[in-house]
Every structure is written in structure tokens, then in C-alpha cells.
């Protein structure tokens, strides 16, 4: 199973018997990937094996939207114009397409913001360019600090939540740094009082990456 590549030629395979005849429009693809492709609820995925032996399902990205997805993963304020390697790692952890890395490198090379920032470091007279949210609650960041000396209530960590626009910061004493604790604090001390932010930024610690179940 594979998506058609309209930049490559198609060929028609036919067969017939005494009762009927048939034809199939085919393309030559990289045979090495056939065994890694599978349909999950009518969606095509490629299975990638990590170094630790675990499997990751990559969505096989249609060519028509690949540039849009790459630009979104690279240029939005939540991704911060990462470099080539980090952008490729982030995209390939979720998506797959043949020769993906070449396309990613091309888009980053043509990124106007990246080129301006690169020039900033090569010329001291250039103006420093940085990303900044334009309104309150557009982007917040959260992280844990500690461990500190345990209190009488058993708390030994702080979770910090900061709004990148207003610079308002909130602190919450916690007993641990588990996923449930991090999520509950974001909801209780931020979302319930300040509203749901457009984006949440973290340092990609394990407690911020685990998917919570209902």
C-alpha cells in the first residue's frame, strides 16, 4: 500500500481468463517500505521502530499538504523556528514521506525569519529578531523546580506557569512532578482563572509528553 506519486510514471497491468479480464494502474515504489505500511481505520501509516525497540506510527503525508505541514511545524510560535535537525526529528516523529528530509531542508533554507536571525549573529550591526506573543494568554510556559526541603504538608517541588506576553507568573507547591499533577495545576491555577491559552510550552519533560486518559 502506498500513495501515488504523480511525479513518477504509471503503468497498466492487465490479465484475463476465460470468464473476465482486469486491469490495475500501478507505480514502482521503494519495495523496502512496503512491509512497514499499514491501514488503520482507512488511514495509511508507516511503522517506525525506535532505538529502544518501541514502535511509532507515522502518518503518511499526502504530497499536496506536505509543505503546509512542514511550515506549520517549523514556523509557528509554538515551535520557534527550530534548526534542521530538531525540525526533522519533530516532524518525522509523527509524519512520513519519501525524501522528507530534503524537502524540510529546502523549506528551512528558504525561511525568511531563519535567514534574518542567521544574519543577526554574523553582523553585530543588525537588529536582533525574536518571537513574541502579541496578546495575553496566547502562549504560556510551565516547568517544575526542585526538589527542595520537604514541607510539613509533604511538598518539595514548585510548578511555575508564566504568560509570555504579560510576564505574569504563578507558582504552585506540589508533592511530585507527575503528569496528573502538572495537568491539574495548569487547569486549576491558570485555566479556571485566566482562561484556556492558545498554546502551552514546556521543556518536553516526560511529564509533559505523556498522553492523559479520560
Automatic annotation (TrEMBL):
Instruction: Give the matching InterPro entries.
Output: Integrase_cat-core, Integrase_H2C2, Retrovirus_Pol_polyprotein, RNaseH-like_sf, RNaseH_sf, RT_RNaseH_2
Keyword check for 4Fe-4S, yes or no. Answer: no
Which one Pfam family would you cite for this protein? Integrase_H2C2
| Entry annotated with the keyword Ligase | no
Keywords recorded for this protein, A-Z: Multifunctional enzyme
Q: Where is the Integrase catalytic domain?
A: 129-214
- GO MF terms, alphabetically ordered: catalytic activity; nucleic acid binding
Quick one: a GO biological-process term for this protein?
Answer: DNA integration
Superkingdom is Eukaryota
**PANTHER family (UniProt xref):** PROTEIN CBG26694 (PTHR37984), PROTEIN NYNRIN-LIKE (PTHR37984:SF5)
Question: Could you identify this protein by its name?
Answer: Integrase catalytic domain-containing protein
